[in-house]
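LAB NOTEBOOK - FOLDING QUEUE
OPERATOR: T.R.
BATCH SIZE: 2
PURPOSE: Compare the predicted structure-token outputs for two unrelated chains run back to back under identical settings.
PRIORITY: normal
REVIEWER: second-year student, initials M.K.

ITEM 1
FIELD SEQUENCE / FIELD STRUCTURE:
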Amino acid sequence: MKNRGGCLEGIFKMLLLTAIFDWLQEKFGFGRGVSCTGCGCGLILLLLFLLLVCNTIIGTDWLRAF
């Protein structure tokens, strides 16, 4: 049987992902870098963030508290 995380683990993962994403966007994201490199890095970071968020949402059992 697959052991999936509960809702508190999912919420913690989402908060951690958001904090990391915000920090990376400040350092390497949109508006940073020479010409369009900031835009390119920002787009790559956005796609990776969306992939990780979808993985967290799908892999979490939101009805289980622990």
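ITEM 2
FIELD SEQUENCE / FIELD STRUCTURE:
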Amino acid sequence: MNLDKTALVLIDLQKESNFDLQQMEQVIQNAKTLIDGFRTKNIPIIYTRQVNRADGVGLSLGEPLNEDGTPYFYNSDNDNVEIIDEIKPEDGDIIIDKYRWSAFYQTSLDLMLQSLQVEHIVIGGVVTDGCLFTSVYDAYFRDYDIHLVKDICAASNEGAHMSSLMILANWVYNLKIYDTDNMLKRINGEAYNAWESDKVDSLHFTPENMREVFHNIE
């Protein structure tokens, strides 16, 4: 992985808490550790924010609404659209606002990555089965090498989190999966461990064996 052609992309690590996401304290701490490590290497850091306009313009069909008709999630009039304070952007970081789940859909993310001559995307964020999931697929469709940091991802329930990561592992052919510690080892030139599939659709799972199979990517 050429660090001069690498960027860290953090998906929707915002103050929004209506999803009741699991293990967010761990996610935030791991993200902070990762960000600090990437800053020491002068690797670009890109944050995305999901934003739903308070006036309802541009909302996805069926977007949940409050009784007064304003968006329930990521309301632009609410401070919850801001990045979590512990990991907030610094001068020089890039912030991409988006109006659909994928960080690439009708945003400037691809343009920014191309301008930075990025080939390798290190990615994580929330929610695993929504905005993170669709963003990884869209990055793959645009021919980026994808390095997913699984312990800075979270969903509202264990099944959604595990199944989403395993689906990505099965079908994003160039995907590599790390934890925070091993990703930092990699950018520091140290020996590291990462999961990488050796064949297509390698993780067959059922509701009964999901946890057992999930351990294969740990």
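REVIEWER COMMENT (ITEM 2): Residues 103 and 111 are 12 Å apart (CA to CA).
FOLLOW-UP: none requested
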